[in-house]
Amino acid sequence: MSDQLLEIKDLHVNAGEKEILKGLNLNIKKGEVHVIMGPNGAGKSTLANVILNNPQYTKTSGSVEFEGENINNLSTDQIAKKGIFMSFQLPEEIPGISTMNFLKYAKNKVTEKPVKIFEFKDTVKKYSEELSMNPKLIERNLNVGFSGGEKKKNEILQMLVLNPKLAILDETDSGLDVDAIKTVSKGIEMFKNENNAVLIITHNTKILHSLKVDYVHVLVNGKIVKTGGQELASDIEENGYAQYK
Ligand code: ADP
Ligand code: MG
């Protein structure tokens, strides 16, 4: 059994007529934490969305493989069932469904098994406590009236509950205060093990102060222009992205 989870080869992606990803390569193995950093508009969210095959984007060439299988043309729900999770940069407010019921429904769909309700509620409660979430939030409508920080923690709660093989976190750290960033890092630490992987997308380096990562990639203008370790983040912190243009 190979350790390879995600393999992206020479991926070119358009939104309408506009080319956004311009030959992107990325390999993620089990047990690894990767970070993609880059300036606004570089294509980071596009990359996350295109892995999950959001129909707004078209792959014009190249491939996305997951556990050795080409998933270019699978639907988003099929990809989720394979074990890829993505958190949203801007989580939607969904009136009419409580956070708990949403989680239960999502878990049900992804695993294709009925959820054992008492056990499940205990799990959700335990994780939400670890994330220092107000216990009332899980009974409230999904994200409705949640603060920015509460929405982001709720994304981490979903990751923990759904327990995917690959979690892609798009700017989960953005707009958070120092304590909330620490909580998000703690959630990532709790999640990660030798059989799964995390891809963190961010444009700032703060989260890397409280989280150890294996690889840092710099994404500029639709391509990964540099890959390194944690030290690359410190370099960006000091010198910015201008050096990569
Ligand atoms: P990042 O997340 O790195 O800030 P994005 O992936 O959101 O960047 O966007 C990259 C570029 O692609 C931007 O110029 C953005 O306006 C454009 N873009 C993203 N999504 C779409 C879309 N659905 N339609 C048209 N242009 C898009
Ligand atoms: Mg983005």
Map the helices and strands.
Elements: E1 4-15, E2 18-29, E3 33-37, H1 44-51, E4 58-66, E5 69-70, H2 76-82, E6 84-87, E7 94-98, H3 99-111, H4 117-130, E8 141-142, H5 148-162, E9 166-170, H6 178-191, E10 197-202, E11 215-220, E12 223-228, H7 230-239
Parallel strand pairs: 3-10, 3-11, 6-9, 9-10
Antiparallel strand pairs: 1-2, 1-4, 4-5, 7-8, 11-12
Notes on the protein architecture:
33% of the residues lie in helices and 30% in strands. 37% of the residues are buried. Helix 4 crosses helix 5 and helix 5 runs parallel beside helix 6. The mean pLDDT is 94. The strands form 3 sheets. The chain has a 6-stranded mixed sheet with strand order 6-9-10-3-11-12, with helices on both faces. The chain has a 4-stranded antiparallel sheet with strand order 2-1-4-5, with helices on one face. A two-stranded antiparallel ribbon has the order 7-8. It has 7 helices and 12 strands. By secondary structure, the chain is α/β, with parallel strands linked by helices. The structure holds adenosine-5'-diphosphate and magnesium ion (MG).
